[in-house]
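Title: [Solved] TetR/AcrR family transcriptional regulator 3D structure

Original question kept below for reference.
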Amino acid sequence: MPVGAWREGHMVATRAEIGQGRRQRTRAALVEAALRVFARMGPEAPTVDDVTAEARVARGSFYNHFASWDALLLAVATAAVEQIEAELAGQRDLPDAAARVGLHLRGYIRKAAADQVWGWAVVRMALVAAPLGTAMRANLAQDVADGIATGRFTVASAQLAQDVILGAGMMGMRSVLQGEAGAEHADDVAEAVLRALGVGDAAAVARCGQGGAARASLQPDPLPP
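Solution (posted by the thread starter after getting help):
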């Protein structure tokens, strides 16, 4: 291949890589900006202009990356849940379903205490972002099934168990975010939920170990609701 042709091809490939990198950075900036906006305003009140202004990009950039508002909602919900689930991934190997549920409850609530932007975004998106609920239930469904199968949980149904866990977890996060309780509230919520599920040693299990997000710094910069 002639040197000139090789150089031209290399330059075209390089420009394509630069363009792809720029698009990825812009998309990430929009997702991060939306997370901050949702934390302040919730996911339904903001507009595209609110998000692009927060990201400091042109309004047209939004539609280069997201076909609709729902597409952005899905991206933000996925990013938020993937972040905490990655931090808690090491706890998936615990053999006791009750311990896994307790540690996940504590992890989510303590994560909210340590990162209020993330916490408010998750709480405010939970009821309107179906993908957020689906992602959060992925591991939870298995934990509940294991708990029932091994006799650790004595509940009327798996759905009831999931509702109790998710409802208490979200309200626990909200209480911490509003300053009505401290980060240690995570332990109390975990114990109360495990007791509701019929776990006899709930107090001990709810406070066993400190993993992942539970060890995160608990000195967040307050973010008003």
